[in-house]
Each structure stands twice: as structure tokens, then as C-alpha cells.
Amino acid sequence: MAALAATTSLEISCVLTRNDVFSVRTGKAGIAIPRSGLRFSSGAELKQRKRFRVLGNGQKNFSVRSTQSMMEKEDVGTEEYDAIVIGSGMGGLVAATQLAIRNVKVLLLEKYVIPGGSSGYYKRDGYTFDVGSSVMFGFSDKGNINLVTRALAAVGRKMELIPDPTTVHYHLPHGLSIQVHRKFEDFVSELYKRFPHEKAGIDGFFGECWSVFNALNSLELKSLEEPLYLLGQFLKNPLACLTLAYYLPQNAGAIARKHIKDPELLCYIDAECFIVSTVDALRTPMINCAMVICDRHYGGINYPVGGVGRIAVQLAEGLVENGGQIQYKANVKSILVDNNKAVGVQLVNGKKIYAKKVISNATRWDTFEKLLNRSEMPERERMFQKSYKKSPSFFSIHMGVKAEVLPKDTDCHHFILEDDWSKLQEPYRTVFLSIPTVLDKSLAPEGHHILHIFTVAWIDDFEGLTREEYNAKKEAIADDIVERLEKKLFPGLKAATTFREAGSPKTHRRFLARDDGTYGPIPAGIPKGLLGMPFNTTAVDSLYCVGDSCFPGQGVIAVCFSGVMCAHRVAADLGVEKSNVILDKGLSNLLAWFRTLA
Ligand SMILES: NC(=O)c1ccc[n+]([C@@H]2O[C@H](COP(=O)([O-])OP(=O)(O)OC[C@H]3O[C@@H](n4cnc5c(N)ncnc54)[C@H](O)[C@@H]3O)[C@@H](O)[C@H]2O)c1
Ligand SMILES: CC(C)=CCC/C(C)=C/C=C/C(C)=C/C=C/C(C)=C/C=C/C=C(C)/C=C/C=C(C)/C=C/C=C(\C)CCC=C(C)C
């Protein structure tokens, strides 16, 4: 039996048979592998790209795979992967796990110390806080669109979920109070009560939402940039595909106006869109609006026991179990490009890592202005930056409060705009509030609740301040919001506070590595629905983007879809999934032409 070489991650290049004993040479990571005593738990030969479990003397199980090219590469001090993913937001994690389960050799690099990005968590004084939204779409066990459940299941994970009876409780101008109940009939009956003259309009608008959702939910969701898959779906389900093609260039506001005349009801639809897109209905793609409006009643909103951050942790664990690798505190400084082809990345510590494909989960602004040379931005990206701009960021407050300050049966999620509809999109005017401990008490010390409050804010408000001015500004904004919540919902809130920490757009920029702390892209004008949103391939060969600055945009479920699409396209380009070069070229040109229409 031949001597074997292994990299730090136990990459083994040789053919082995059952019970072969072999010696390994470990790399710099300091993994203590005994020189003998390792053996396969599985028989059969170790073939290229095949995963095996190796059992060491009293060691954990390791996944290994054969990579014949590793020997030469390692000798010159470089590593080679099939794919490197920059960033472990939900988009990056889903792309990485979907590749790993296809036996693609993938390395995920995350600059922070835990996975999840905006969907991560942090702990303080016995509280476990969700960094971003606590409203989880796509997390049921029904249909095809439950992309969070599916992403976990792909790596053998299933989480315990707590159903949320009310997606959100709206507190809007002129006393308009709407609870979005889990059951669709209960929700629309609230709207009928307030707008009896608009019953037909309500049925018409929500009816169109359901047509879109049902079409989406009937497809197997994969890369819309892969022509063989697309063709297959058209043949299997022509009606659903044509429905989606019809709605692809449309926005929710225009469709709402076909059915509804009442200005207050139209403002309400704006609020529904604003909470997921940070723009009004006229600028929100119909497919995205329909997706969230219906999924909350179809699969329902479900909260994972232990907090949203657990999802990313489970995916990261699943990634490693399936042969992928993840490195934390790995801050990518630049993407290495040779002859307009991405060939790897360089970390801030100078280390270069090479791969056949590079996937960036950083925003497109970060990818094309920081990780790549801004002055060489491809025309396609310039076009994107003309049609889409950075949305504002959020000012967020994480609080711990005594439980008695919340009235009995308080809903988990609230959205508040007190006075004037025209202020819907103005900074600090709307308040988003989640109280995840209403569903999962384990997130706070006994007798306490978590309040996660956020409001739209621009980074410019926080630039150029001294440390004292910056802190004082954060505290003043937080005081003002707490006062508003005292008036509207919870008298005595300030006195009942046991913990409070405020974050500004600068906090988002710093911890989430998002340019200006942006929540994601928003259309610069009235978009043609989703037509102008870029998919995963880029103008740089072998470089892909994933996450919320790709189709279909912001939202955990949306970036999960982006991850699924990205992995499928990358796998096709690596030859792991079916593809056809001529059809690929044709579709890519067609999609580029579509984008010029947007
Ligand atoms: N506070 C909020 O509520 C909030 C804010 C923004 C986004 N979001 C939501 O989060 C989701 C976005 O998910 P996503 O997957 O697009 O991205 P993400 O922003 O969640 O994750 C990106 C990850 O990439 C890492 N990263 C960035 N640059 C890097 C570099 N150079 N080297 C190494 N790592 C790097 C970041 O640390 C982060 O973990 C969406 O659901 C969006 O709606 C929520
Ligand atoms: C050729 C071509 C291209 C085409 C043809 C046709 C077709 C086939 C098409 C298809 C299409 C598709 C499949 C599509 C898909 C889509 C999807 C999936 C979408 C999704 C979306 C989602 C979303 C947007 C989501 C979102 C969400 C969010 C953002 C959330 C958030 C939340 C929050 C913030 C919370 C709030 C809170 C309070 C109130 C407290």
C-alpha cells in the first residue's frame, strides 16, 4: 500500500482498500493524526470525489476524499478547492452545503467567529439575541417553497419549531390595527371588517398573490440560469412557468391598484411590502410580495427553538459532516483574478487559497468595489448599480425586560407607524419589534423577555462623530423609541428594562461586513419586477455571487433560494450536474438582454 499525503483537512490522494493502514502528513493546522492506526470504516475503493469516513485512534470521525492533484499543489504550498465561498450568511451557507452534498470540495471562509452573518446571534447577560429578523418564512414541512427546512434537511438536520399564531400585528395611522393571523381566512376577515366596500378588491389582489405562490410552490426550485433544468420545468409544468414568466416583470403596487381604490387600503399594502423590501408596493416585485403574503398562511411562520442563530450553526455543522470545510476569522481581502477568471482568494494575513470557482456572499458593492478592483468593474455590474442602489441600514435595540411589563397575549411581532402614512419610508418613523421569548422562553432568564427593536436609518447620520457623540446619539435615539413604545404598547417599559444595547448602521457595517451597513439592494426607480435582478454568475469567469444582492433579493428564504440556484449553476459548471455549453451561452445572452429591458 502506498504512502499517503494529506493536507490539513485530511485530503487523501490514493486508492485504498478496506483496513489499509496508512501514514499521513499533516499540514500547519496542527491536527494530531497518528502515523498509523487510521482505517476506513467503509470498504470499497476511495475514488475521486467520493466521501469516506476515517476512524482514527480515539479521534473524531473525519470525512476524506481523494484529490489526485493535491500532491503537486501541496508541494508548492498552495491548496486547491473546487469552490471557495466567501462569507457564511444564509446565502453562503446554503450554497456551500448544497455543493458539499454533491461531493464538491468546498471551503467556506467567514471573517467573524460564528456563522450566520445577519442571521446570526449573540449572547449577553443570559439573553440570546437574534442579530436580524426573527420572522422566519420558508420554515414549514409543507410544499416546495420551504427552503430553510430543505436546506437543513439536505445536510440531515431538522429543528424543533414553534408555530407563531400571528405573523405580525400592524399598528398604523388613524387607529388601523391589523393582526396577520396564521389562518388566511381570519386575516382577510380583519380587512373585510375595516374595508367592507373593498371586499372584491381584497379578494382580487390576494387571489393574484395566491396564483403566483401556487405556481412557485409547484416547481422544483433550482438555477434559473441552467437551461436544461428550466426546459424540464417548462415541459413538466408549463402553466406554472408561464404564470411566473407573466408576473416576473410586475410589481405588487400596480397589481393592487387594478383591484383596490381605497387609499388607506393601498397604504396598508405599502406597509405589507415595506416590512420585507424597505420600499413601497409600487417598487416591490409581485413575486416577492406574493411569496411572503401567502407563505405565512400556507406553511406559517415558525420560530426555531434556541433562536434563529441555531439555523446557521446547524448548517455549518452539516457542512463539515458532509465533507466541506469552514474557517472562521478568515477575512478575505481580495479575489484573485487571472485573465478575467477568478482563481482563488487572498486573506488579510496574506495567505492565498486557490479554487476552480469562487462564490462571494458579500454584497455586490463589497464584491466589486472592495474584493475586486473598483476601477475594473465590469459593465454588467455598472448597469446593476444604475438600476439598484443600497437600501438604508437599520438602527437596532436589543433589550431585556421584566416579563410583567408585557400584557397577557402580546403578539410576537409588531410594526408601528403612529401618525402619518407619508412617513412610511422615512428614517426612524417606523418601528419593527420582535419579542421572540413570547414563543421561546429559553432565550431569556426566567421572568424576562427579549425585545428586539429596529428602525430604518442611514449611515451618514453616524459618520464624523467622536466616540462620546456617537454613543450619546445612539442612546438618545433609543430613548425616543422606547418612549414611543411606552405610549403605544407597553407603559412602564423604561423602568422594566434590565438590559439595553443599541446598534447603528456602523455596527451593521462592522459586524456584518456590509457596505454602509445596507439591508440590501433597492430599485433606483420603478423596477420591472424582478427582471433586472442579477442571478449568480458574473461577468468575471468562475466568479459567482450569492445572497441578497442577487435574485430574488432580501430575506432569509430569498437568500436560501439564491444559495440553491448558485450551487446548481456552479455544480453544472464543474461538470457535477448536467449542462450544455451551447444552451448555456444562449440562455446567458437571453437573460442579459432581459436585464437591459428592466
Ligand atoms: N438586521 C437585519 O435584520 C438584517 C440586516 C441585513 C440583512 N438581513 C437579512 O440577512 C440576509 C442576508 O443574507 P446574506 O446571505 O446575503 O448575507 P449576510 O450579510 O447575512 O452574510 C454575509 C457574510 O459574509 C461575511 N463576509 C463578508 N465579507 C467577507 C470577507 N471579505 N471575508 C470573509 N467573510 C466575509 C460576513 O461576515 C457575513 O457573515 C437576508 O435575509 C437579509 O434580509 C437582515
Ligand atoms: C427565463 C426566466 C428567468 C424565467 C422563466 C419563468 C420562471 C420559471 C420563473 C421562475 C421564478 C422563480 C422560481 C422565482 C422564485 C422566487 C422566490 C423564491 C422568491 C422569494 C422571495 C422571498 C422574499 C422576498 C422574502 C423576503 C422576506 C423578508 C425580507 C423578511 C423580512 C422580515 C422582516 C424584516 C421582519 C419584519 C419584522 C417585524 C415586523 C417585527
Molecular shape: globular
Strand coverage percent: 15-25%
Number of helices: 17
Main beta sheet, described? 7 strands, mixed
Structural class: alpha+beta
Question: What is the mean pLDDT?
Answer: 88
* First-residue to last-residue Cα separation: 61 Å
Which runs of at least 5 residues are low in confidence (pLDDT < 50)? 1-77
The whole-angstrom Rg is 25 Å
Family: Belongs to the carotenoid/retinoid oxidoreductase family. CrtISO subfamily.
Membrane topology: Peripheral membrane protein
EC number: 5.2.1.13
GO cellular component, one term: chloroplast membrane
Word description of this protein:
It is a single chain. It contains 17 helices and 23 strands. The strands form six sheets. Strands 4, 5, 12, 13, 14, 15 and 23 form a seven-stranded mixed sheet that branches. Strands 10-9-18-19-20-17-21 form a seven-stranded mixed sheet. It has helices at residues 70-75, 90-100, 147-154, 184-194, 199-218, 227-236, 238-247, 252-259, 263-277, 286-300, 309-321, 364-371, 379-387, 467-488, 505-512, 556-574, 581-597, and strands spanning 39-40, 52-55, 62-64, 80-86, 106-109, 121-124, 127-130, 161-163, 166-172, 176-181, 302-304, 325-327, 332-338, 341-347, 352-360, 388-390, 393-402, 413-416, 431-434, 448-457, 497-503, 521-523, 543-545. It is α+β, with helices and mostly antiparallel strands and 598 residues long. The termini are far apart. The chain is globular. Helices cover 35% and strands 20% of the residues. Helix 8 (252-259) runs antiparallel to helix 9 (263-277). Mean pLDDT is 88; it is low at 1-77. Bound molecules: nicotinamide-adenine-dinucleotide (NAD) and lycopene.
